[in-house]
Amino acid sequence: MSLFSAPAGADPLGTAIKGVVRAASAGAPRSRQRTIGPSSAGHPCARRVGYELAGTEHVNASSDPWPAIVGTAVHAWLADAFAQHNRREGRDRWLVEQRVAVTPTMSGTADLFDTASGTVIDHKVLGADSLKSIKRDGPGQQYRTQIHLYGYGLARAGHDVRRVALACYPRSGFLDGLHVWSEDYDDALAADALARLAGVAELSRLLDPAALPAEPGAGCTWCPFWRPGGPADAAGCPGAATA
Ligand code: SF4
């Protein structure tokens, strides 16, 4: 279907706008990422981590790109805001968008490091349910591992890392809805996560990702390897329905 044609009954302009947004999103660097980074390393589903390690092409085209687009735009705005604050104050309190080497083969970008408190901060732009869940239960394994891995990399680069934090902004609503979760930086937690990842990598060398233990759940529809309707194989996984 061309960008400017629309299914019967659909608004042609709306269809065209969505087509432009989807096309731009599909070409964004994050969408083409094929190596595992700190953000995926702690995912509780070993099968998903196995697909990432194998460099499997993303097959889930059904998830709506809008939350990621909003997240990327907010991250860019926040990076600028903290850099401006540094300039206004005449000092580099905030290290913004810091490139971090976690291991020789894994690197990422830490959103923010507060040199005043030794806190690594990751910005999360969340829908209402996710925000509610983090306020109630704290972050899950994936987010917690991610921020400690950034801490691990920054500590090895010589920074005095004392705390890790997630600054959780509501995707809709007001700044007053910001929720900050934090805890002491734990070097052992990061080292354990890297050891688990090495274990999954070892299994991935021997087995197809589909043979790795799966942890299906409500988040499967957001998994890049979610492919409903068939058995799990080297290209995709049916997730919660039939994994
Ligand atoms: S679809 Fe679900 S069960 Fe399958 S790999 Fe992804 S997260 Fe794991």
Can you describe what's shown?
This protein is of the alpha+beta class. It has two domains: 1-32, no CATH class; 33-222, Lambda Exonuclease, Chain A, CATH 3.90.320.10. The chain is 42% helix and 17% strand. The chain contains eight helices and five strands. The protein has a five-stranded mixed beta sheet. The radius of gyration is 19 Å and the shape is globular. The two termini are 33 Å apart. The mean pLDDT is 91. The structure holds iron/sulfur cluster. Residues 45, 47-48, 214-216, 220, 223, 225-226, 237, 239, 243 line the site of iron/sulfur cluster.
Strand-helix topology:
Layout: H1 12-26, H2 29-32, H3 38-41, H4 46-54, H5 66-89, E1 94-103, E2 106-114, E3 119-126, H6 128-137, H7 141-156, E4 163-170, E5 179-184, H8 187-206
Parallel strand pairs: 3-4
Antiparallel strand pairs: 1-2, 2-3, 4-5
Iron/sulfur cluster is lined by residues 45, 47-48, 214-216, 220, 223, 225-226, 237, 239, 243.
List low-pLDDT spans: none
Determine the fraction of residues in helical runs and give it as a percent range: 40-55%
* Count of discrete alpha- or pi-helical segments spanning 4 or more residues: 8
Please summarize the sheet with the most strands: 5 strands, mixed
Radius of gyration from the CA trace? 19 Å
Shape: globular
Number of strands: 5
Mean pLDDT: 91
Helix-strand sequence: HHHHHEEEHHEEH
Tell me the fraction of residues in β-strands, as a range.
15-25%
The structural domain count equals 2
Strand order of the largest sheet: 1-2-3-4-5
Termini gap? 33 Å
CATH topology term of the largest domain = Lambda Exonuclease, Chain A
List bound small molecules. iron/sulfur cluster
